[in-house]
Amino acid sequence: MDKRGPLFADEPEDTKTEILKATFDALAEHGYANLTIDRISQHFSKSEGLVFYHYDGKDDVLLDLLDYLLNRVVQVGMPVADDGDPEIRLRTLLDQVIPGPDEQAIRDYETVLTELRMQAAQDEAFRACFNQSQDVFRETIREILRDGIESGDFRAVDPELVTDFLVTLVSGLTFERVTTGASRSIRSELDSYIEYRLLADAEDADGGDA
User: Fold this and answer.
1) Are residues 55 and 131 in the same domain?
2) Which of 41, 125, 129, 160 could in theory staple to 48 by disulfide, Cβ–Cβ 3.0 to 4.6 A?
3) 140 and 73 within one domain
4) Is residue 209 part of a domain?
5) What per-residue confidence (pLDDT) applies to 144?
6) What SUPFAM superfamilies has UniProt attached to this entry (predicted)?
7) Cα(66)–Cα(51) distance, rounded to whole angstroms?
8) Residue 99 contacts residue 111 (beta carbons within 8 Å)
9) Do 92 and 181 sit in the same domain of this protein?
10) CA neighbours within 13 Å on the CB side: how many for 115?
11) pTM above 0.70, yes or no
12) How many Å apart are CA 180 and CA 173, to the nearest integer?
């Protein structure tokens, strides 16, 4: 994936990662409802028996895939420099989580995550994985906002409310893109939000009224 680096090596070094890669490809192609171990094995270069050797069934391998994907986001896609201009840090983070119209690899990733997120409505194990990842995303935004407020780069906004807004925006945009195929061009509006809602103007920086 262009912004996060590839999710998997072309030739994974271990069998379990190769199974997860095959599961990702099969899930992106068939969706959760039509996913079977047989379809996973069609994307797997080794015997189907190895899938059953490592996993008890479909949900077992899917939970491992979800954990792998979310950890990959946290380790590679989520981190931004913890020093420097808060505005640049925030924009960089948003660039990483809002794909451009031609980034098919990220779209496949979002499709797979959306399929897995639907299972979180009924399965506590899936829900716990998503909650852990979402907590990291939220804390990353909050930290940037707090640093920007402290440095005077951002207005004295409520970090919790702004974080809720940005997380909801990204989540809603992803869900609509995956479920409707629509690609909304909201980045200019988001840029305006950052400029006029978050960035402190000269008067703010001098301690005047906003």
Assistant:
1) no
2) 41
3) no
4) no
5) 94
6) Homeodomain-like, Tetracyclin repressor-like, C-terminal domain
7) 16
8) no
9) yes
10) 25
11) yes
12) 10
Torsion of CA 22, 27, 33, 39, to 10 degrees: -30
Phi, psi of 110 (to 5 degrees): -65, -40
CB 15 within 8 A of CB 44: no
Find the domain containing 114 and state its range. 81-204
Calculate mean pLDDT across residues 65-92. 78
Residue 134 — pLDDT band, cuts 50, 70, 90?
Answer: confident
Nearest residue to 118 (alpha-carbon basis) of 129, 126, 128: 126
In the block, tokens 């906004």 appear at 157
Q: Distances in Å between the alpha carbon of 160 and those of 69, 81, 142, 145? A: 26, 21, 7, 9
Distance of alpha carbon 195 from alpha carbon 111, whole angstroms: 31
DSSP 8-state class, residue 186: -
User: 101: which residues sit within 8 A by CB, 6+ positions away?
Assistant: 183
- Tokens representing 145? 């906002």
pLDDT at position 75 over 80 = no
- The first and second tokens of residue 107, run together, are 């779209």
Distance from C-alpha of 64 to C-alpha of 16, rounded to nearest angstrom: 9
Distance CA 138, CA 159 (A): 10
Q: How far apart are CA 51 and CA 48, in angstroms?
A: 5
Q: How many domains does the chain have?
A: 2
User: Do residues 106 and 9 both lie within one domain?
Assistant: no
Widest CA span in the chain? 69
